[in-house]
Amino acid sequence: MKKRTKIVATLGPASDAYEQIIALMRAGVNVFRLNFSHGTHEYHLNVLTRIRKAIEETGLMTGILQDISGPKIRVCMLEEDFILKSGDKIEFMKKEEIVGHRVEEGLYRLCINEPAILNQLAVGEYIYMYDGIIRAVVTSSLPDKVIVEIENDGMLSSRKGVNFPNTRLGIDVLTQKDKKDMLWGVENNVDFMAISFVQNAQDMLNARKIIRSCGGSTQIFAKIEKFDAVENIDEILEVSDGIMVARGDLGIEIPYFDVPYTQKMLIQKANNKSKPVITATQMLLSMTTKETATRAEISDVANAVLDGTDAVMLSEESAIGHNPVLAVETMVQTINAAEEHYPFHKFKDFKMYDRGDKIDDAAVRLSESLDTSGIIAMTTSGGSAKKIARYRPSRPIYAMTHDLGIACSLSIVWGIVPAFSVKKDSLKHMISDVLDQGIQRGVLDLEKTYILVAGDPVGTPGSTNLIRVLTGHEMRFFCTLKKHHS
């Protein structure tokens, strides 16, 4: 059985060569992530060109995710590293751009790259620095500065990240750099954009407006890494094409011991909405430098699969890691082992929004009842295939679409094989074309039975109204029809 859970791999210095890209695809990567926190447009274009050449050579449908960096908040340059002790004070300057320095014993002064945030802070709220390693509480807020008291020992150096786990930032999550990067993504036809530090639905609406103003229709994923994004997840899901559980910053924004439950909750909500969800950050972190993952990391990947995530993601492991291909192979083995115990076709009480939802539900039930070899979903927008996937059938879902962009967008969705691309025609001739392609390529078998889900009239999004059982006899008829039609 081929894995149903998809793999997203970040490309970087360890993996961006053409031969490595092909090796990663053959190992099991379904989507490549381009991290726009690093690299120039020229660098990313070169990598993108290699990916597309590799897709053409291998014939493997692989999506491209552009990760928009967002307003990463950092401390300014420091004269020297701050060796901080519990009880020390730091003055965060609101208006003055300075080089951070020690004022006197136990007192330090610095600035951050987004000083407007400091106006939002209230006494008693927290500031975390250096990926949450250094914790400080606000003791006073003055017109020109915020003063905090350090609660644990640590060393702070220049340009380290800053988090505000109790504070609604009130800033635009899309910087001028991000907007230029998004234009690049539209011009180069990436399949997905991940929007960082999303706080609410309006952030995603703003992102979509920018994409449309550039003439694009790229799918957008909300990175859930802020405490207020968790609080606003329902409204964010309504206006997003998918979400990413970005556990790195999320584990600083909310108590780290709440992350496992929050992950499960976010995955379930995305599943219920037929929106793909990626589980990300530190999944096989040990493999950045080692040949093997820890047992805890293997369990982490397996539990994300059992939670129902659509995809799991590699970051450092594949971008700068010791052996990116081995990391992917390890993830594939873990996914396959977990899916042997996966509760397939778990028929939940999903709210049925329209007739198409009920038909998709019925198609999965019929497939399980008849023990068919797969479900063929003829889909114009991809929506029908995604709704079938949310019922987690134990059989493969073979997606047929007219649009290469839609096919690529399904590369990240659980259980879907974006296998067929056909021209718009009458329904019977399109079925004929799909079956002919599938048999010639060894994807389908004349001796097996399949469920077909389609809409008639053809090409109208949301028109799913047909379930057909394709036996060997019917498949032979349609293949004959193809020959006559040709």
Concise account of the structure shown:
The protein has 486 residues and is of the alpha/beta class.
Rg for CA atoms: 25 Å
Low-confidence stretches: none
How many structural domains?
A: 3
Kindly report the spatial arrangement of strands forming the biggest sheet. 1-2-3-13-14-15-16-17
The span between the termini is: 34 Å
Q: Mean pLDDT across all residues, rounded?
A: 92
Topology, number of strands:
22
- Please identify, by name, the CATH architecture of the largest domain: Alpha-Beta Barrel
Structural class: alpha/beta
Q: Count helical runs.
A: 16
For the sheet with most strands, the description reads:
8 strands, parallel, barrel
Shape assignment: elongated
CATH fold category name of the largest domain:
TIM Barrel
What does this structure look like?
The protein has about 475 residues and is an alpha/beta fold. It folds into three domains: about 5-70 and about 170-340, Phosphoenolpyruvate-binding domains (TIM Barrel), CATH 3.20.20; about 80-165, PK beta-barrel domain-like (M1 Pyruvate Kinase, Domain 3); about 355-485, Pyruvate kinase, C-terminal domain (Pyruvate Kinase, Chain: A, domain 1). Helix content is about 35%, strand content about 20%. It has helices at about 20-25, 40-60, 175-185, 200-215, 225-230, 235-240, 245-255, 260-270, 295-305, 315-320, 325-340, 355-370, 385-390, 405-410, 425-440, 470-485, and strands at about 5-10, 30-35, 65-70, 80-85, 90-95, 100-105, 105-110, 125-130, 135-140, 145-150, 155, 160-165, 190-195, 220-225, 240-245, 275-280, 310-315, 375-380, 395-400, 415-420, 450-455, 465-470. An eight-stranded parallel beta barrel has the order 1-2-3-13-14-15-16-17, surrounded by eight helices. A seven-stranded mixed sheet has the order 6-7-5-10-9-8-12. Helix 14 links the parallel strand 19 and strand 20. The longest helix has 18 residues, at about 40-60. The radius of gyration is 25 Å and the shape is elongated. The mean pLDDT is about 90.
